[in-house]
């Protein structure tokens, strides 16, 4: 399976969100070609969720799964810890009171 360069995927995802009137920001710019991406969905009520892409070996596909949820501060701490371990990490924040993230459309 051919993978898109991470930078290209991130740019397309942020543009897709912005076209849907969902504010999105790159919090951390990782490796342009192969960095891992974490998505923080800020529901603007003090809560947030973090999603990560996982690989389903049996189905031979990548899926976005909820990695954790909690207070926005806790999710920021989670992103900071992950970034400390992975210098290639990308982090994107979405501001979505309803929790909509459109990841199901981005494969």
Keywords:
single chain, about 110 residues, alpha+beta, hypothetical protein tt1805, five-stranded mixed beta sheet, 2 helices, 5 strands, globular
Structure description:
With 107 residues, the protein is α+β, with helices and mostly antiparallel strands. The chain has a single domain (6-105), classed as hypothetical protein tt1805 (3-Layer(aba) Sandwich), CATH 3.40.1530. 26% of the residues lie in helices and 36% in strands. A hairpin with a 4-residue loop joins β2 and β3. It starts with 5 loop residues before the first helix and ends in a 12-residue tail after the last strand.
- Can you count the helices? 2
Overall pLDDT level: 92
For the biggest β-sheet, the strand order reads 1-5-2-3-4
- Based on the coordinates given, report the CATH architecture: 3-Layer(aba) Sandwich
Query: What is the overall silhouette?
Result: globular
Low-confidence segments, given as residue ranges, are none
* Number of separate strands: 5
Structural class: alpha+beta
Beginning-to-end CA distance, first to last residue: 12 Å
Can you summarize the main beta sheet? 5 strands, mixed
Name the beta content range: 35-45%
């Amino acid at each position: 399976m051919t993978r898109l360069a991470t930078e290209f995927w991130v740019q397309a995802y942020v543009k897709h969100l912005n076209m849907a009137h969902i504010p999105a920001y790159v919090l951390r710019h990782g490796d342009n070609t192969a960095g891992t991406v974490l998505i923080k969905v800020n529901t603007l009520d003090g809560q947030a969720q973090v999603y990560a892409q996982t690989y389903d070996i049996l189905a031979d596909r990548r899926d976005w799964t909820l990695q954790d949820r909690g207070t926005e501060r806790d999710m920021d701490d989670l992103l900071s810890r992950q970034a400390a371990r992975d210098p290639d990490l990308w982090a994107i924040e979405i501001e979505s009171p309803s929790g909509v993230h459109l990841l199901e459309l981005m494969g």
